[in-house]
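Work Package 3 (structural annotation) set out to generate three-dimensional models for the target panel prioritized at the project kickoff. During this period the team completed the workflow that converts sequence records into C-alpha cells, so that structures can be stored uniformly alongside our sequence database. As a representative example, we reproduce one entry of 483 residues exactly as it appears in the project archive.
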Amino acid sequence: MTKLADIGLIGLAVMGENLVLNMESKGYTVAVYNRTVEKVDKFIKGRGAGKNFIGAHSIKELCASLEKPRKVMMLVKAGQPVDDFIDLIIPHLEEGDIIIDGGNSHFPDTIRRTKYVESKGLLYIGTGVSGGEEGALKGPSMMPGGSPAAWPAVKDIFQSVAAKVEDGSPCCDWVGEDGAGHFVKMVHNGIEYGDMQIICEAYQLMKEMLGMSSDEMHEVFKEWNKGDLDSYLIEITRDILGYKEDGEALVEKILDTAGQKGTGKWTGVSALDLGIPLTLIGESVFARCLSAQKDLRVEASKVIEGPKVKFEGDKAQMINDLKDALFGAKIISYAQGYNLMMEAAKEYNWNLNYGGIALMWRGGCIIRSVFLADIKKAFDKNPTLANLLLDPYFKGKVEKAQAGWRRVCATALSYGIPVPALTSALCYFDGFRSERLPANLLQAQRDYFGAHTYERIDKPRGEFFHTNWTGRGGDTASTTYDV
C-alpha cells in the first residue's frame, strides 16, 4: 500500500516549492498540487525527484493521499483565491480535518474564514510565514492562529521546519484564536516597513549630507552589524552597498520608486481603527507612496529650491549619531507595534504571548535581530508590561540614544533632507514622555464649534462639561465623545 502523506500543499510557486522541500528534508511525506498541473509534474521530476513527494493532479486526489486528520495547506495569492480554494477543498474533507492558509491574508478575512470552516465541522489555521524564499527552504518564522484544536495536529511539522534560535527553540508557536496569527504577521510586516525606511534615511544622509561612497557605507553597516543593530536588514544593506556591477555600486542604478503589497497599509489602517499612534510605520508607508510619485518629484525638483547641503561638522561623530538615531527609532517602532498588538488582543479577545512573539521573530523572518532577545526578556520579566519604553533596559537605551538622535534629526531638517520616520519616532518619544500635551486646547476647540464637551483637571474623570463660549450658543452638548 502506498504511504499516505503527512501534509498536503496547494501552490507550487517559489514559497510553496521551498517550504515543501523543507518539510520533506525533516522526514515528512508531502502531497503537492498546483492549479497548473504541469507544475506538479515538473516539480516531481525536477527538484522533488527521488524524494518523499506525492504529486496530485486534482484537489480530490490530493486529499485522498493524506493521513487523517488531513492537513491541507494553501500558499496561494491572498484574497478571493483563498476563498475559492477553501470551497473546492471542503467537499473532500471529513470532520476534524484541517485547512491551513500560509499566505499573507488580511486578518479580518482569517477571522471570517475560521468561522466558516468550523461551521462545516472542520478546523482552520491562518499562519503568517516570514523569511522569503530562503527562509521557506532553510527555516522560516511561522505565526499560526485559528482553531486551537488544530494546533496539536500540526505543531510537530511547523516547529520542525521553522527556524531555530541558539538554544534550539523553534521560531514558531501558537499565537491565538481565529485571525491572531495573521494579525501578528501583519504587525511584523509593518515593523519591517519601518526598519527598512529608517535604514534608507540613514543611507540618504550618509550619501547626500556626508558625501560617502557606497564602499564607505558598506564598511559602516558592516561595523553596525556587530553591535546593538545586528540584524538581517542591516546585514543585507551591508551586502547591497558592497555589490558591484561593471565596477559600480548596483544600488545607485536602481530607480527610486518603492513598491508595496499592502501589509504596511493594513497595519496603519488597523492602528487608526484601534486608536493606536503607529507613527513610524505610518510614515514609512507614506514614504513609499511619495517615492512612487517619481515624475512629479522630478518636476518639483526643477522649480522648488531648498537649503544647500554643505556639511561642515564632525563626520565620525555624525556616523555615530546616525547609529544612535537608528537604534532609538527601532525601539520606538517595536514599542508602537507591540502597543498595537496589545490593543488588538483586547478588541478581539486574543490571549497573545508577547515574549513568545519576540521569540518567533528572533530567527527566520525579515526583522530578525539580536534586539528581539531583549524584548523577550522584558516580557518574561513583566508579562503585563504596557509599553516597551517602560522597561528599564529599553528606557536606558533610548535615553542614551536620544542626544545623537536629536542631532541627526535637527541637522537633516536644517539641510532639507527628508527623514520622516526618524523624526516621527522622535516626536512620539517626546509625546509619550510628556505629562501634559496641548490636547486641552484641542478639546476646547471641539467644544467651541461642535459642543463635543471636555473633561476638567479639577473634576473626576468621566464627568463631561460644555461651555457656551460665545454667549450665543445653548447648553445642549453633543451626545458623542471619543477620547
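The beta strands are 7-10, 30-33, 53-55, 71-74, 98-101, 123-130, 141-146, 176-177, 244-245, 248-249.
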